[in-house]
Amino acid sequence: MARVSILIDVNKCNGCYNCFLACRDEYYGNDYPSYSAAQPLNGQFWMQMKEIERGVYPRPKLSYIPVPCQHCQSAPCMDAAQDGAVYRRKDGIVMIDPEKAKGQRDIVNACPYRAIFWNEEKEIAQKCTLCAHRLDEGEKMPRCVECCPTGAMVFGYLDDSDSEISKLSAAAAKEDFHPEFKTAPLVQYVGIPKRFAAGEVVFRDKQGECAQGVKVVLEGEGGKRETRTDSFGDFEFEGLEKNKNYKITVEQAGYVSRSFDISTRTDINLGEIVLEPK
Ligand code: SF4
Ligand code: SF4
What we know:
Helix content is 13%, strand content 32%. With 278 residues, the protein is of the alpha+beta class. It folds into 2 domains: 4-190, Alpha-Beta Plaits; 195-275, Immunoglobulins (Immunoglobulin-like). Strands 12-11-14-15 form a 4-stranded antiparallel sheet, with no helix packed on it. A 3-stranded mixed sheet has the order 8-1-9, covered by helices on one side. A hairpin with a 6-residue loop joins β2 (48-54) and β3. It is elongated and about 75 Å long.
């Protein structure tokens, strides 16, 4: 059976929380025998939203990363469980057996993603099942994916080369969320926020006029990248590696070029860059 997966494009996520609410609606108070016990009213977030703040005023950025159970192919929760209380289906979905998991609190602490929650009343560990009960009934996708208005999440079968997710996975620079955990997640991401460097270009002799179309070159980790200032004279390089050295050069015919050495220990805002006429 082909493995299932969700590909999450962080650039398309606007933080609307529809996926979170859809998950709550599907599972709060609803038992799916042999799949999952009902979520309690409080304390369980099978679809978590991580809010990532970057930069500072006047260039702050806020990104949202939806984080369900990652359905790891090397899953610490399975290792921690007794009596097969956590198991992997043929389609790759990692499940917690609601009966066998009774009393096994250690399962909760085994997950490095903090994707497992303890149900005090029922004394069981619980988490996202990728809506396995729906898939087995013939539904095409989990509720969270179905309710996403922006297409930030794509669900499908990884081993089917014709599926949308396979094609997107092949084309995109996908990555694990927290690759340092080394759990080989089936859930994959595109556009996890990294560092950015930005600035605003103005011409000394044309005050009040936006310096549009100025060439800005970035050199360093990953090679050379080039952009042009927008209609406000602003430029930005996204997706820079953390803690690396780069050089930014601003060039415009008829003006003295300016260069800046930067280090991406933090996000960089070079502020106003004034170009002097030659
Ligand atoms: S994310 Fe956590 S709960 Fe999900 S499979 Fe991986 S280790 Fe287990
Ligand atoms: S529903 Fe889609 S856009 Fe909204 S928070 Fe979830 S992933 Fe992001």
